[in-house]
Amino acid sequence: MTSDAMDAFFKLHRDLPREGPGEPADIAWAAALAGLKPAAQMADVACGPGADIGPLLAAAPKGHVTALDKTAHFVDAARADWRGDGRVTVLKADMAAIMNSYDMIWCAGAVYFLGVTQALTAWRKPLNAGGVIAFSEACWFTDSPSDQAKALWNKDYPSMTDEAGITAQVVAAGYEVLGTRRLDDAAWEAYFTPLEARVQMLRPNADATLNSVLDRSEAEIACWRAHRDEFGYLLSVVRPI
């Protein structure tokens, strides 16, 4: 992506509440499945603007969240929201090198930057005994997706697989799957509804580069609404064997 395209991307995404599909119910489900304790130490990896910090604290109200992202304005947004709350530390950091120790590592939609097996391998050391990793990953829900869905996802996710494929990558890292959950429509709309409003706001004065970014986002939204039964995000809760 060129620098102009990157600037246009962040013009669209800056100050949005989320950077991908998700909802508090996903975290509550993962925490319950993991048997997360009230004082759990948690990491929110690639936290974006910090939408999941509150739900993580709701799952472990006496615990602590270390949220990290390598994009400076996401870090600034999360810090602004949680400044002065001793239960939260927000760091500008690389997800490939997590420091400290955690009872749960949460990663919403960003494992693909490293790959499932690579991420789980890298995050094994900072995971406390009995700890879990909960991550969501783009996933095919059918063996015969439509041409529109394939055109959208194959460009950026050429190795996108199905649930069995994700499980195989988990097992390859030496983990077991405690449970899986498909993100539902509410999780997608929590991301797409404000994104769609931002697209409409920016469109009248957009230059060619920004228009291209806006077109891409509109195509993504339209594809999901037309073919949501073919693909989505699979949330997996896993534990080292």
UniProtKB/TrEMBL annotation:
GO terms for molecular function: methyltransferase activity. It comes from Sulfitobacter pacificus. The keyword Transferase applies. Keywords: Methyltransferase, Transferase, Ubiquinone. InterPro entries: Methyltransf_25, SAM-dependent_MTases_sf. It comes from the Bacteria. This is Ubiquinone/menaquinone biosynthesis methyltransferase. Residues 44-131 form the Methyltransferase domain. One of its GO terms (biological process) is methylation.
